[in-house]
């Protein structure tokens, strides 16, 4: 009997398992794969700690950044909660008396120094509104060197404003600049007698207006049209007959389509120059205007940006010319944020401007000839990147084929004034190969360093040298925040050897023979300054220029000022 019960029991278990298997088979469609509704139970479920922690509400602090900034809170006491004995009452700690600093952009600055230096500045801005800002500024600086009539003076004044609207922002500035000096150059004849006896004074007056309307970025619609319209107008005149009037209108329109950007840059510059030898009749103005359009399409990928387009330039006025230049650029992120490779090809026309040329060299002769420079072909490429906020760099190599490159040359009849010579006008063009490098380093909150290197090599077509153009230029700057009240700045500038086109003169002031290539020595200029905040709104400053007291020349016969110091106070309100 016992045996029959055991056998019956075993048969019942087997039958039950077979029935369950058959039922499972009946529910399975052999034409369909097993889906997520099917389960394969391999063991009984037993909750363990690894599963229980999934439902905890406390944050997982193990997923932290590899670098955490070190924070310092000064006099705030480090009070910790003792969680072993429960929450304790937090006692309010008495902190040292502090006063909220009023940040203001308004200031007045006055200073005096050797060489007859007088400095005055004032800047006033109304910033009481979130969407409106306006104000004005005035500046004055005059100095006098050790040479006869080595005088300089500069005055600036202007009004500015900005209005932010819902769709766009409008800003502009209306200003006046005045720069005065004298033709104090000291060329001499074979007997050592100066050829410049009059030392005429020269004054440049510049009235200008700049305005811009720019669309605001809409974070809710990244594919919206972006646009800008800009006007840049000025009237510029020297003491004699030279003058320039310019009205430039420019703008751009861009539309983003997913990974593409399609748009165009458009500009028209209507320009006229008076006192030029380009015109036959004295008193007439040389009309030299330029219009250009730059359509483009840009593709932005995960690690690259590719821009393709063209630069179409039309020169019109007293002379006409039409050019189409390629425009292509690529930026590839080799290591995102750290290493970017970039390169491109382009071309364009650089407008001949009396204003820009006289700002580089204020000792120009009268009745000059003006000619636009054409960058017939321009290649560039390089590498750039940064390492966080403490280190940034850029290195660039450039090649250009130039037509009508302007050069300053001492006038044959009046060597203390400068004419313009143009190279690359024939079949041969001026070939330019250059290297440009920049670096910015922030060693700490106390020290910031920066530098720029330029190596320029010209292969001239007709001229012997690229006159007054050094092959090596180096600029560096540093800022030291010694404390919350003391700041120190330093600047260094190095220009390599350059050459001038000069003549020798007899006792009557007539040139003896053909020109000679004269060296303009290299120079190193070091300046440094410091500012101390005696009060929250009162500061004391001092600055020393040309510390090594070397009266170097950038242009032949025109030495710069020697060592000079200026000091004063500035007051903010």
Automatic annotation (TrEMBL):
Tree of life domain: Bacteria
Main location: membrane
SUPFAM superfamilies, A to Z: Porins
Keyword terms: Cell outer membrane, Membrane, Signal
GO CC field: cell outer membrane
Signal peptide: 1-26
Cellular localisation: Cell outer membrane
Record has Transmembrane as a keyword: no
Name of the protein in question: TonB-dependent receptor-like beta-barrel domain-containing protein
The organism of origin for this protein: Sphingobacterium paucimobilis HER1398
